[in-house]
Amino acid sequence: MNIEEDFLYAYGFMPQSTWRLLHPRTETKLTPEEEQILRIVLAHGKLHPRELEAYLGRKRELNAWGGYSKSTTRVLQRLHYRGLLRIASRENGVRLYELPARQYEQMEPDERVRKLILLIARVLAPSPDLSLRMAIRFAAHASPGLRKGSTHIAKLIDSGELVQTTVDGIRYVWPASRAAQTKPATTVRFLAPFDPIVWDRRRFEHLWGWPYRFEAYTPAAKRKRGYYAMPLLWRDEMIGWVNVFTRDHELRIEPGFVNGQPKTKEFRRELEAEVERFRGFLDANNS
Q: Which residues contact 199 (CB under 8 A, 6 or more apart)?
């Protein structure tokens, strides 16, 4: 599969064409430990972090969240960040690493930044100007050249590659090449909390008039919609949310609605179609 697991403005899966735009992130000299790990991965082909313990021990160190992680895991993460390792697969949620088959593309730094900003703007389009700038700030972790993203955004607006308009006092920005869809598809979709349509909570509330929050880390007693409530899209309206879980080995779907459930047969048919798509997705991943 031509996809990679990495960080853009958020962590997730991306095509290799995007991954190659993100690298090289840094070209500092490798430490002896990093060089040793690369040799070990090359010898194994695909490596589970615990396999490194036989070579490097089980030393632990403080991580960015104030807890402790295995030193070997931290080195693997650094090498992955640099693009010198890729996530080959997962075993019970644990990342297995291998060497990447492809390398990054040689490109002038300004051109790399330009392409990244247009890519992010296209994924999130149309995006409030403030939200796009926030996404670019997050993406500076993925590509340090984006640290002056606001300057580049202004240049892209001046050149006409990004266009803008103001709605209800909010300035929206999107790539000039992004084609507008004039008629929404007559479908129901369950969207992940980090779907590009959902990720920007500022835009979500402006367009659909109610606040969506990801409540997995909210104490159960304070949750309003559920542990992993997913926004429910009907045509081009975000009309509510769904919680998906199993009970007695059966898949259960519990929808909630902001202003009541649509009464049409069309909606009921499309809702059932999305349930079946979701069921098929879960079955495929459990097989």
A: 10, 124
**95-125 as b/e: b if 16+ CB within 10 A:** bbbbbbeeeeeeeeeeebbbebbbbbbebbb
DSSP 84: S
Give me the residue spans of the domains in the chain.
Answer: 24-98, 109-175, 188-286
Residue spans of beta strands (DSSP E) within the chain:
3-7, 11-15, 60-62, 68-70, 86-91, 94-98, 127-128, 162-167, 170-175, 188-190, 230-234, 237-247, 250-257
User: What's the pTM?
Assistant: 0.86
CA–CA separation, 225 and 213 (whole Å): 9
| Residue range 24-98 in CATH 1.10.10.10 | yes
Give the contacts of 157 (CB within 8 A, at least 6 positions apart): 163, 164, 173
At 165, phi and psi to the nearest 5? -155, 165
> Do 204 and 213 contact (CB within 8 A), yes or no?
no
pLDDT tens, 144-178? Answer: 888 888 889 999 999 999 999 999 999 999 999 87
